[in-house]
Amino acid sequence: MRGPTASPSARLPAAAGAVASQATLALGSFLLQLLAARALGADGLGQLALLLGSVVIATSVSSGLVGDSLTVLDRRDPAIRTALARLALAAVAGAAGAAFVLSWGLGDLSPRTAALFAAATAAFMVADLLRRTMMACRRFWGLVVVDAGALLAALCLLVVLSRGRLTVDSFLAALLAGQVVACVALLRSLPRAERSLPVRAPGGLRAVLAFGSWRAVQQLVRPTALNLVRWLVLVAAGQAAVGELEAARLLAAPAMMVVQGVGAYLFASYAAGRDEPMSALLHRADRGAAALLAACAVVAVVTTAGTGLLGPLLTGGRFELAPLAVLGWAVYAASCAAVLPYGTLAAVRGDQAKVLGLRVADSLGGLAATAVALLWLGLPVWAAPWLLAAGSVAAGAACRQRLLVPRRDEPPLPARERAVHP
Q1: CB proximity list for 348: less than 8 A, separation 6 or greater
Q2: How far apart are CA 203 and CA 41, in angstroms?
Q3: How confident is the model over 21-65, as pLDDT tens digits?
Q4: Residue 110 main-chain phi, psi, to 5 deg
Q5: Per residue, what are the HEC states of 206-261?
Q6: pLDDT (tens digit, 9 = 90+) per residue, 316-330?
């Protein structure tokens, strides 16, 4: 059983650390893609965006299946720990193998590029699982140091490679180097008990799959939808248009960074606070959604107004950005802010299947609307994030009103159900 829940003032440093850690991670991704936009142009950035989108899809599966499970379930139970380790190994090995076979056998990548892509996928997934363990221990500030080191390693390799011509391979190698450094640093930063190998014990696989499989599919939905949108843009307008839309997303990235950082904190916080009544948790979710929407509004105003100045700095003058695309991505980040606190709370309190249903419905609706807009109506590509945002807002409202409000009088969970051990 857990001790008393931390006071709001005690929770603030952890929340700030969650945002700061996500900011550091997002800064690394932003800088790599910024350099790619300047070095590769719209075509190269479009290809890199599709590859990185696939890495995010693979990572979302392991993050939901293993990362969310180790946060909510009792990861110190030998059976649970054994199941988590086996699932992590299977997910990483399977994703790396699929990345190599599909990108080389079915795609247009060379064997060297496919191998780098597969290795970067595996390293990113392992580092993400180690990050999730740090988050479950609520050591958010330690992640800032780790990700700063990973960013430095990636940039140093790019500096070395820049003596020649930078290619997509260069950026995949930089991503791989950064994530390997992150893995080493994370292993050194974790508590000794978290680094120990599990004592082999049967019986935990069913419990992990019962919770994690729902979370894995839920985590998979949003990045898959985004990558499918990139493919729709590729079909409708070409690879350069994918790069232009991705560059516009980069300008709005600070808003999504705040959303993801607070989301990481909220998941660990809700899991650790299952001894609180639902009314208190719902109130916290409302406050979190309001704060996230306010942050996204500020980013939307600043980035859209500064597109004319920031766009050439981002692209090196090689292509132009549409202000409506930048604003659309900021609105999309705000739509994620509207659903994230409520979806996270509902999942922690056992409604992960219903949250998944809402997430799938809003993503399919957004994808269908985008396909019609781009392929049939011939609308410009900047319409894509706006259409995705509409479905996300509706899902957030439905999640709060249909899943959480009817349960607001629920008492804290019984002690036997508080299985989390941060």
Answers
A1: 72, 267, 270, 271, 274
A2: 52
A3: 777 777 788 788 888 888 888 888 888 888 988 998 999 999 989
A4: -75, 165
A5: HHHHHHHHHHHHHHHHHHHHHHHHHHHHHHHHCHHHHHHHHHHHHHCHHHHHHHHH
A6: 777 788 889 989 998
